Amino acid sequence: MTQTTDHGFSEPVLHGGRRAVLAAGAVRGATAAGLALGALTVLVMAMWIISPFPDSDPAGALHVAAGLWLLAHGAELVRADTLSGAPVPMGVAPLLFVALPVLLAHRAGRDALEPEEGRPVPSPGTALWAVTWGYLTLGLAIALYAAGGPLAADPLSALFHVPLVTVVSAAAGVWTGAGRPWGRLPAWVPVRLRRELGRSRAAVAARAAVAGVVALTAGGGVVFLASLAWHWRAAHESFLHLAGAWSGQVAVVLLSLALLPNAAVWGAAYGLGPGFALGTGAAATPLALAGSPVLPAFPLLAAVPAEGRGWWVHWAAAAVPVVAGLVIGRFAGLFSRGWGETLLTALLGAAGCAAMAAVLASFAGGALGRGELSAFGPVWWRVGAGALAWSLVVGLPAALIVHAWGRLPVKLAPGSPSKAPAPSPRESSDPSPGQSSSQSSGSATGPSKNPPPGPSKGPSKGPSTGKSPATSTGNSTGNSTRRLRPPRASDRSPKTAKAGPDAPASSPAPSP
User: Fold this and answer.
1) Rounded to whole angstroms, how far apart are CA atoms 367 and 75?
2) Helix, strand, or coil (residue 506)
3) Following DSSP, what letter does each residue of 295-363 receive, concatenated?
């Protein structure tokens, strides 16, 4: 009795189904939230360890880390243990801290669509829901734990900002994991507008907007560093006054590094024109520093310009939005086809740049206290309006100029090689099997006057035509090789070839 066994490959068995997919996505989201909290906890605990006079025990340090996790999502913190006894709000979130949960939630959403052995691939909506649910579940526990510490979050602010940052970051990750599909516009969009937006290469407009924001923030960083270098004495005095021990100085340096992206956004807002608020009664713009600012002692705030009217050094900050507009115009004009598409792409790029600049400005500012310090930093809607105006004024003409420059005919300089004419069908036909590549390169320079000697098969018959026989010798292998010339029309059809009156009859050459 014989038993046969099938050794063929079988499809993998799927275990768990939808529940397993939801559980895996929720674990990814909770892991992202836990990694962000862990990174901030390590930083806070390190500062607590090196501090010679810590204000609290390790449990207090953990409460501070939980509060910083909420602040990294844009939530406003409330400090209760102040000298006056009144709670003080803290709403300026370091953008370097904000980047941490955003990147982790984005990665969790992207990895949720990766196929795993034994599990079905979830749909984008299912993956987004699972990752968000796991992230916010752990976020709720963190918010409840931070409520009993020195830095508790404002409930309404945390309820708005934490889900918003989580959903947007995870949705961007799911979109990336799905291959960045653009999809169709909603049905309520007018048909004509839908058609124009479809023609206008949305990917080019998105790249132009991102490039414009990068140029804007980079230019703002240059403006801030230049001002900080100009006021370096005041910054040094503020640094020594704020922290005397080396542990305090390390903490101030780390906090300053985390706030450098905020300073770059402030510099961009200053170059755009709206500037930034230094309290409720003061504002800094390139034209002047109006009001009487009340600034806390911090090294980065030493870069704020002095009171009074501005002069050409302050006005030079307007070069930042000009460069950003030129970048948007270059992308829109270089990668668009028609004039209408160029204008629409530049318009969409300007709108996208303005929207992202407004979002950055909303996270870069906030409250540092009550009263005069309740409004501190750039105003988001003013920054968005300024970015839109500069991008349209500079970006639209730049896009048209770049597009027109690309349509100009190319003129070759004298002496430059011109394009070779297209070969005729007879010249482009395949050569005979005996033809070599060396003969084709030699024919471009003209016929050889002194052909290499070769074995003669017989006396030449007929008058000489002045052309060398198409034979060559090869020494690559040490043996001489005879190579035939390509066949001519007269050789291929000797019966139909027209012979001249004085053309003698010749016998065909023997084959080698």
Assistant:
1) 11
2) coil
3) --S-GGGGGSPPSEE--HHHHGGGHHHHHHHHHHHHHHHHS--SHHHHHHHHHHHHHHHHHHHHHHHHH
**Which tokens in the block code for residue 509?**
């050459």
Statement: residue 128 has pLDDT above 60? yes
User: What's this model's pTM, rounded to 2 decimal places?
Assistant: 0.73
Identify the DSSP state of 408. Answer: S
For residues 66 and 342, the answer to whether their CB atoms sit within 8 Å is no
User: Do residues 265 and 220 make contact, with C-beta atoms less than 8 angstroms apart?
Assistant: yes
pLDDT of residue 180: 78
CB 130 within 8 A of CB 167: no
d(CA 305, CA 316): 13
**Pairing assessment for the beta strands 88-90 and 288-291 based on DSSP bridges:** unpaired
The predicted-structure confidence for 145-169, as pLDDT tens digits, reads as follows 998 888 889 999 999 999 999 999 9
Name the 3-class secondary structure at 384.
helix
What residues pair up with 88 in beta bridges, in sequence order?
A: 79
Contacts of 172 (CB under 8 A, 6+ apart): 106, 109
Give the helix/strand (H/E) hosting 376: strand 376-377
Q: Please say if the pLDDT value at position 317 is more than 90.
A: yes
Q: Which of 16, 38, 45 is nearest to 138 (CA)?
A: 38
Q: Name which of 101, 151, 153, 137 is nearest 22 in CA terms.
A: 137
Task: Name residue 276's beta-bridge partners.
Answer: 284
pLDDT of residue 411: 57
Q: What percent of the chain has pLDDT over 70?
A: 72
In angstroms, the Cα distances linking 458 to 455, 483, 508 are: 9, 17, 11
pLDDT in tens, 364-407: 998 888 878 888 899 999 999 999 999 999 999 999 999 888 76
The Cα 94–Cα 98 span in angstroms is 7
Q: Is 371 helix (H, G, I), strand (E, B) or coil?
A: helix
Structure tokens at 258: 């985390």
Average pLDDT over residues 256-275: 95
Instruction: At 485, list the tokens.
Output: 């010339």
What is residue 337's predicted lDDT score, i.e. its pLDDT?
79
Of the chain, the end-to-end C-alpha distance in Å amounts to 68
* Mean pLDDT taken over the chain: 79
Query: Under the phi-then-psi rule, with left for phi > 0, alpha for psi from -120 to 50, and beta for the rest, what region is 183?
Result: left
How many Å is the maximal CA-CA distance in the chain? Answer: 123
Residues 56/161, Cβ–Cβ less than 8 Å: no
Separation of CA 371 from chain center:
40
Top-confidence residue, 286 or 417: 286
* HEC readout, 93-136: CCHHHHHHHHHHHHHHHHHCCCCECCECCCCHHHHHHHHHHHHH
